[in-house]
Structure formats: C-alpha cells, structure tokens
Amino acid sequence: MDLIRMMSDVDWWLVGRGHEDELEDQVTGFITKHNIPNVKWFWKEFPEMAPVYRECDIGLFLTEAAEGTSLAALESLASGLITVVTPVGGLTDIVLDGINGFHIQSATPDLQTKLRWIVDNLQRPEFTEIRSLARKTAERAFSLRRWQVQWVEVVKSVVRH
User: In sequence order, what are the beta bridge partners of 39?
Assistant: First the structure.
C-alpha cells in the first residue's frame, strides 16, 4: 500500500484473489478509507485474462517466500508485458533480469526506485527488445505444446519401468 501511495501517478490493477478473506478486507478497506482512485481490484476467470493483459504495461509479481513456475508470470511474458518479479523460486527460471523482464527486491525503497525507473522508461528502445524476448521466452520455452510433449515422455518413461 505504501508503494501505491508513493506512485500515485500509476494506475494499479490488483488482479486475482488473496488467500485470506481478512487480507482482502484490509486492502479493500484501505483503498476505500484513503479514497485511492488509481487502484482497481478485481478477479477474472482464466479465459477472461487476455484483455486484461492487453490493457497493461507491466506485470508485477511480488512473491515473498516460495513460487514454482508461475502461470500468471508466464501469461505476462506471453503478453509482452514488462514482467517484474521478486527473485524467488521458479520465477528466476522464467524471468532473466534485464533480458526478458526484471528482478526486484520486495523491500519498499528498492521496489519503489526500480519500479519508478521502469515506469519512467517504458518507451525506451531497450524495453521493446525486452517485450519481444518476453514473448519469445513464453512461446519457445513454455509453450503448451512443448509441455504436452515433455509430459508424454515422462509418462512413457514411468510406464516402461
């Protein structure tokens, strides 16, 4: 919430459900109490997410403790967003810092400084390349077809033994 207040010129879309109703109530209450007009919090079914990604410039994934291969981060990459993740778990396997997205520490000063730099530089030519590499990463390394082929091979190897 501190970051949202510090970067009041940014439109924030919080998409998805929290894991605890109490936390969701706290965030919703904070947004309402402080009349923060640049924040929308909503949830969409998976098939409805493509238009949401098309409306965004940045996908921000601030995982604190553990993360596998994040489907939402892969969707962000596939959508060509500037994908920003904390260097936690599987996120570092799909987002290469400065190549197809960025790593960021979740501590507020580092987060604010780096995110501010990203927001202020979205039109730089280097960011066009990062967006392109983000899409290529999702298409080539994490395509559904590739996963299907790999799973078939895993199942075949188990069945043979």
Answer: 12
DSSP class per residue in 76-124: HHHTT-EEEE-S-TTHHHH--BTTTBEE--SSHHHHHHHHHHHHHTTTS
**Domains defined for the chain, CATH in brackets:** 44-160 (3.40.50.2000)
Report the predicted TM-score, pTM, of the whole model to 2 decimal places: 0.84
Distance CA 26, CA 105 (A): 23
- Per-residue tokens: 85: 């993740």
Determine the Cα–Cα distance for residues 6 and 2; give it in Å rounded to an integer. Answer: 6
SS (H, E, C) 40-72: EEECCCHHHHHHHHHCCCEEEECCCCCCCCCHH
pLDDT in tens, 61-96: 988 877 888 889 999 999 999 999 999 989 999 999
